[in-house]
Write a structure and sequence with these properties.
This protein has helices spanning 9-31, 41-46, 81-87, 111-123, 180-183, 199-206, 232-235, and strands at 2-6, 34-38, 62-66, 68-70, 132-138, 162-165, 175-178, 186-193, 225-231. It is an alpha/beta fold. The chain has one domain (2-235): 3-Layer(aba) Sandwich (Rossmann fold), CATH 3.40.50.1360. The strands form 2 sheets. Strands 1-9-8-5-2-3 form a 6-stranded parallel β-sheet. A 3-stranded antiparallel β-sheet has the order 4-7-6. Strand 2, helix 2 and strand 3 form a beta-alpha-beta unit. It is globular. The two termini are 20 Å apart. It binds 6-phosphogluconic acid. It comes from Flexivirga endophytica. It catalyses: 6-phospho-D-glucono-1,5-lactone + H2O = 6-phospho-D-gluconate + H(+). It is an enzyme of class 3 (hydrolase). Residues 8-228 form the Glucosamine/galactosamine-6-phosphate isomerase domain. Keywords: Hydrolase.
Length: 242
């Protein structure tokens, strides 16, 4: 586990985004392709700010995915992919077929169908070795990541890649989320967390006995590294940083 601390949310967003460019270039150098899982929320947009000016990336060999999506139509203000579209995707020459969005209600009958279509897309043979390179996740003040919420039964679905989530405690209620198992099939998992309202959950996720049922952020781990990107406010309750 690595802690990456920055003073402010803006500093944090810039550092994450610069590192993301470096990691995409490294993944392409090593494997020819980069599979990156994006997040919604305010950190989602900030994490992509350096991409439009990156010169060293072969955009035809970048694939973008999402850790979760709200089951609302494309373009709706609630969609997680909107942040990424606004921040960077509109400006990048990534082939449309490399941008793997979760289908909305205008394309499929229900959340279950959206989840199974997304699972099939992830399972499909692809360039690389089937691992994600980076999974980026925002975290809610309750410690949720993607749409895996504390004490929500969807969290316990096993043998699945993407699941339907109903009755999300945070609106909108219907969502598709990757499972812990799928999120953890990544070389690196990055948690992108800023703000004092997150400090309690950050500390809880780092407790030695942290349980993902209570604090879902404690249940995500990269095969090579798990990086907690924190601003000073979010890190304030970690032992040693008070
Ligand atoms: O509806 C949701 O589940 C949230 O939007 C969530 O997924 C978001 O990513 C985190 O709450 C972090 O958000 P911030 O990055 O804005 O703090």
């Amino acid at each position: 586990m690595t802690l990456e601390l920055r003073d402010t949310k803006d500093d944090l967003g810039k550092a994450i985004s610069d590192r993301l460019v470096t990691e995409i270039v490294a993944a392409q150098r090593d494997r020819g392709v980069a599979h990156i899982v994006l997040t919604g929320g305010s950190m989602g947009g900030l994490s992509l700010q350096s991409l439009p000016s990156a010169d060293d990336i072969d955009w035809s060999n970048v694939h973008f995915w999402w850790g979760d999506e709200r089951f609302v139509p494309a373009g709706a203000a609630d969609r997680n992919d909107l942040e990424a579209d606004k921040a960077a995707l509109h400006a990048l020459p990534v082939p449309a077929e490399n941008i793997h969005r979760v289908a909305g209600p205008e394309h499929v009958a229900d959340v279950e169908s959206a989840a199974s279509a997304y699972s099939a897309a992830i399972r499909a043979p692809k360039a690389g070795d089937g691992m994600f390179d980076i999974v980026m996740l925002g975290m809610g003040p309750d410690g949720h990541v993607a749409s895996l919420f504390p004490h929500h039964p969807a969290q316990r679905t096993e043998d699945a890649i993407a699941i339907a989530v109903h009755d999300s405690p945070k609106p909108p209620p219907d969502r598709v989320s990757l499972t812990f198992e799928c999120l953890n099939r990544s070389r690196q998992v990055w948690l992108l967390v800023a703000g004092d309202e997150k400090a309690e959950a950050v500390a809880a996720a780092h407790a030695p006995d942290a349980d993902r049922w209570d604090v879902p952020a404690a249940g995500v781990r990269g095969a090579d590294d798990t990086v907690w990107w924190l601003d000073a406010a979010a890190a304030a309750k970690l032992p040693g940083t008070e």
